[in-house]
Amino acid sequence: MKKTRKKIIILGSTGSIGESTLDVIRLYQDKFEVAGLAAGKNINLLAQQIKEFKPQAAAVKAAGDSIRLLKKVSAAGTKILAGEEGEAEMVTSLKADLVVSAITGIAGLKPTLAALEAGKNVALANKESMVVAGQFLKKAASRTGARIIPVDSEHSAIFQCLQQARKKFLKRIYLTASGGPFFRLPLSDLADRSVEEALKHPRWAMGKKVTIDSATLMNKGLELIEAKWLFDLQPEQLQVLIHPQSIVHALVEFQDGSVLAQLSQADMRIPIQYALSYPERLESCLPPLNLAEINKLEFYQVDEEERYPLFFLARKALLAGQSYPVMLNAANELAVSAFLEGKIKFGEINQIVEYCYRQHQPSELNSLEDIFAIDQKTRIMAKQYLNQLVNMKGK
Ligand code: MG
Questions:
Q1: Which domains does the chain have, with CATH numbers?
Q2: 31-72 pLDDT per residue, tens
Q3: Rounded to two decimals, what is the model's pTM?
Q4: Distance from the CA of 394 to the center of ligand 1, in angstroms?
Q5: Do residues 15 and 34 make contact, with C-beta atoms less than 8 angstroms apart?
């Protein structure tokens, strides 16, 4: 008798996490099958993925792209959907055991929430949706009984450590950060770093947005907020250590002083595979971790506010709560895009976010509409400041 395979939907299938997820599925075709794929604009890659994995449905952002895509893959028998409604229809109506949420930014929020509301388990790589709407995602999951399994490597590490122990004894957690490509650079050289330099992450191969966030350490700030919601923790229980080797992904300290950690190579396929196979574990596709070769593991406090101003701002937003994380995320998404497009310098990313932080008028978040309203308002404000910066350069 043929064993039933886990049916997987991947949101953001053409991005870095999406591709790594398909790598894992390719290795374990007896265990997993692709039920649905959603992507943004990379129609050529999506068409290849459809031909290889033959999902029941696929969704793209724009209606025009769905017509182009259908022409390329008409033989595969895959239903092609478009827009937010298409994404929602896919996660709601397809039969699936797990939805991998790997769209970058707040754009991933609606389909992730739709999946949880439909009672589907979610492997969460889209940290921004947890940052801006943690309480709504958690509420939906507890209402329908859907499980949220973290894919972010640090959160996967905490999740794994907590499988071995009771959470009521947890004292605090430590997320590790590599420190990014500029960890050892003199502070005076930071402001003018190029896009190419910022994209050269010392340890991880990841998507562009998260790689820039790693260089500013905003990524770790967002991850603190993500961890607060995922594990129901208080801000003072959330700590960060810089660990340049990126072998220890997180540590969990218990009341008796014991500390558990998860160690592995810095490769996203490890936490992705765990999220897919959970609660089972499968053989790794990577060579084993060789600690003797790595030789030393270092840890440092994050104490340089001038080097990582965005991390300190994110921690302030974590403490302030309410709408602060939504504003922070929106300003950062816009500033990082502007940097990647070559409009601003590296050092100006934090100027934009700081400006929005200073101007922000906090409010309660009572609905998803509140979140999108603050997101929009912040983007307009950030855009105005960005235009001022760009105009000043023109003179
Ligand atoms: Mg991470």
A1: 6-150 (3.40.50.720), 166-266+302-394 (1.10.1740.10)
A2: 999 999 999 999 999 999 999 999 999 999 999 999 999 999
A3: 0.96
A4: 37
A5: no
